[in-house]
Amino acid sequence: MSNNTVTMQLDNMRKKRPIVSNLSIIQPHKIPLNELCQQLNLLDIRSGLTTDQVTEAQTQHGLNQPAPVAEPGYIHLFIVQTFTGFNALLWIAAIFAFLAYKPFGNPTPDPTNFGLGVVLTMVIIANAILNVYQKMKSLKIIRSFGQILPKLTTVRRNNGREQEILTTNLVPGDIILLHIGDRVPADCRIISCENLKVNNAELTGESKPLKCTTVPTNENLLETANMIFYSALIVEGSGEAIVVATGDQTVLGHVSKLTRASNTDEITGLHREVNRFILFVLCCTVISIILIWITWMVWLHPTYPDYITFNANVVNSIGMIVGFLPVGLPSAVTLVLVIVAKHMSAQQVLVKSLQTIETFNSVSMICTDKTGTLTQNKMVCTRLLWDIHEEFQVPTTTSISYDKKEWKSLFGTLARRLSIASGSRLATPVDSLSVGDSLSTRRFELDQISPRITPQRDLILGACLCNNAEKRLQENQQELQVSGDAADIALYNLCESKFNIDVEHIRHQYPRIHCLPFNSTNKFMIVANQLSSSNHQSILNNKSNEILITLKGATDIVLTREKCLTYKTNTGEIKELTDDIRHHIIHRQEQMGSDGYRIIAMLQQTISKNVFDEMLLNKSSDDPSGAFPKDGYTFIGLYCLLDPPRIEVPDAVLKARQAKIRIAMVTGDHPTTSISIAKQVNILTPDIIQKNGFDTFQLTGMDMTTGRPIVQLLRNGALLDTHVLGTVNRLEETKKKTTKIQLTNDEEKNIPVSWIKRAWEYVNFYFSDPKETTDRDKKQSLVPYAIVVKGSDIPYMDEYMWDWVLSHQELIFARTSPEHKLRIVMECQRRGEIVAVTGDGTNDAPALKRADLGVAMQSGSDVSKEAGDMVLMDNNFSSIIKAIETGRLLSDNLKKVSIYLLPGGSWSEIWPVLFNTWLGIPLALSAFQATIFCMMNDVFMSLAMVSEKAEKDIMHRPPAIRNKSHLLNLKLLFHAYIIIGNIECFTAFFCFFWWYYANGIPLSMIFFKYDSFEKQFSPDKQKLLPTINQTGQCIYYVALCIMQIFNLLTTRTRYASFFTHNPFWSRYSRNLWLIVGIIASVLTCALITEVPFMQHQFKTERVPILYVLPAFGFGLLMFIMDELRKLYIRRNPGCWLEHIAW
Known about the structure:
This is Cation-transporting P-type ATPase N-terminal domain-containing protein. GO terms for molecular function: ATP binding; ATP hydrolysis activity; P-type sodium:potassium-exchanging transporter activity. Among the domains are: 2-61 and 153-249, Distorted Sandwich (Calcium-transporting ATPase, cytoplasmic transduction domain A), CATH 2.70.150.10; 79-137 and 267-348 and 883-957 and 970-1140, Calcium-transporting ATPase, transmembrane domain (Up-down Bundle), CATH 1.20.1110.10; 380-386 and 448-530 and 544-642, 3-Layer(aba) Sandwich (Calcium-transporting ATPase, cytoplasmic domain N). By secondary structure, it is α/β, with parallel strands linked by helices. The chain is built from 36 helices and 31 strands. Strand 12 (470-474) and strand 13 (480-483) form a beta hairpin. The strands form four sheets. It has an eleven-stranded mixed beta sheet, with helices on both faces. Strands 1, 2, 3, 4, 5, 6, 7, 12 and 13 form a nine-stranded mixed beta sheet that branches. Helix 5 (86-101) runs antiparallel to helix 10 and helix 6 (111-148) packs parallel to helix 11 (328-346). The radius of gyration is 37 Å and the shape is elongated. Mean pLDDT is 81; it is low at 1-22, 257-265, 398-453, 535-543 and 733-742.
């Protein structure tokens, strides 16, 4: 259901019923909170529901899941599969077969035509059943993906304990915790909030975020600001809410079954390829039938009235329809998708739509995140830096075993213990404490230290307070687990594990008043905590009853002259932060960043509570940071976080490079950190950065003539060129079906488009990709240099700059925002790249949607998972490379199926009809045999082909070019028809004519005889002609089956030798389904030619084995020729033979 439909239904509800009657609570937004809790059986908001209350509520209300959209049933699917696609053409053939029996066959109807109609009908039904079975299997796989990706919600239950539970287990009365990026799991009333804004676009179609409050603002339930509804997105702030309705009782559950985003009905590349195949087959069939009927009406029937009757020409037309149809292709497509999906699931890759797997074959560029994708997402704080030179190395061993109660009371002297270690630059707490020290000795040491060590203490305090990580109880688990952002978890563990600090106790001592969470735009987090006379004494040397403001964020963002003008020394003094000291701190940060560290700066200041309350009261709703001071901060120190690369990523990156896939790192981290990690994972290679170096650019001034900025292009610091910036493209939404967002600029004019062109574009959309990118083969050549682009420079880049930046072999985009990522993806696509992009945040959704392949992370937000085409269950970059390899395997196998089906299934079946019509020879293959060949022999072996393993060179080829690498292209048709098809057709006719020659009928008595063929023979010989012809047709049929077996063995590989990629004994390439397919084809031949019932009903005869032996010789010759072709290509890569090969 579309958003517009939902909005219209909501409007109707507003007009008819101001209050939504399906909610179990009447006017939940207006009644007093205590009365609402009473109706929901909630005794205490702070404690939440008990286990018994939850069980009782679940019994009453059921699971929190709207009634699922009804999936198509077996009967519906069977009807659809029976009358669509290739089966629609087969129905035409079947109907004409019955008509050829009666009334066209009167007065002497041929039972063979009736049997042909029955066989075609049975084939249609069998084909439909097979397709339904495969379709249901694919739906089952998609359903299983949804079960593997459960959605979690944080609730407060059982005496106030916070825990994460499955969203489906929510019940009315639950207290849920809301954070930025969450999807609202049910209809709720807000009980507390901080800058909470929600996006109800999925419910109302309105994309503007709505600010929430705790009091009702409207009589209408749907318009009040203290209610949030199922599926709404938390775009800003945090809060708590009480669940008032779940499942079908929610507003959205009442309006529609479910409005989840789904890609299953979108037109994908694979859909287009199948559509092109059907269009090709349809055109060839129609043209061929028109030709034979024109030939029959204009020349053949008037000249030779007794040769081919009207009824016989109808049967020939049926043969043409059946001959052109590669009936095994739809089943092969569905089966290969199921096989590949299972394979990818085993590789921890879940695809939301099986058809999108084909896109992997064309991926030419990957824009990947750093944290969690290239790295382990297990950040550890290893160093603390403060002042100009002071540094403390966090011990890598387990924490020192102090009593936590002692640390609760002695937290004010924590930094004194650290000061002992600070005498040595890389000392640790263990250096000053021996294992045998008594507790009183340690207390005595701590009490003797002066308060000069406050910067270290403030860093630890900031790690406790300016941190949204917290311990939660996971459902069905007994232990508390720390959950939150990776950096927050690292700082939380620094306090808890390394220094035995009870973080929750510290937070209780310094109650949080207000918070601005980290977001990708600001790149910092600010919290305000209440100070008291007992715990504030060493913090910036301020007095009691004040508010402590703690700010942490990226160094280059927060350590600016506007925000920070002072710093705290090692002795606790507050001094001016001069430019020299600021540059020295930034230099330290860059040094650590070059070693792969992520650096977070911490700033502090204190203000009076009255001033803060006034700021909080007067802050603008459009500027959440208005509640905090804009300046006046003091620099305290730096946290050095290390997130090591995943072990398998470097090899995966090299594998992608071998596959000619470019990898661009797009990260929000500092450039030095990004460069360090990129070097470790081979995104930046020694061959480029050491031999050639880096390119950069910078704004230097304004051009006096045009008034536009001037950019200097630098290579290794030296001036390379200058450029005057031109018109800068901007993002703009469009209603075109081909794309959601496009690039435009203010200088472009809106030219009206005629309805004819729009109609053509609409039809063309289903057969070819939208013309929104340039051709891949027209792209500019890449320069062997690396480049690092900062996100702050992206808004200024024009077409020339994007061409120059994207022409570099190695790319890093640092300090980027989600809008920057979207822009990068679009610019790459406009230059012909097929882009896969990774993302895990809510704001990554536009880029994931826009990309040709959106890759979400299991650890990411629900919004990113919904926007992506696939989900990495292990959050591992190497899984993307495995998925690309699997996608290439899918494309290869479908091409192999096509090139197997076309030579025998269409080319070698239409020429008997055409030769019969044009050259006047007996029909070499009956319509019945053509039907059996297409529907059984070829189907068996083509389905065995889809189980082929990948060739060893599959990841050494460049990505497929979408506008050239079609399932059907000229190269494949040339190979299938002109080479293999002609060899098979020649072989089958050779056996056919040899049989005639053995019966005393040379070629001179066969060709161009038309209706005089039988008149050449004596009456006794004429009686034998039907048997001779029927046997010859069976010989042609069996010879064709034999040649297709050799074709199967030949087309298994594109370039690899059969003997190195054999299907029988090689563990790497074994495919025993080929043997099953070959046996099934042989048994079908025996059934058609050896069973007396079949011989009588369909006019077949036993085949003399002697006359099909040439097929083995020609088949072996074809096999050897193809092996020599592959050998030549392997030894001469890039040769002319490779360029014309399929």
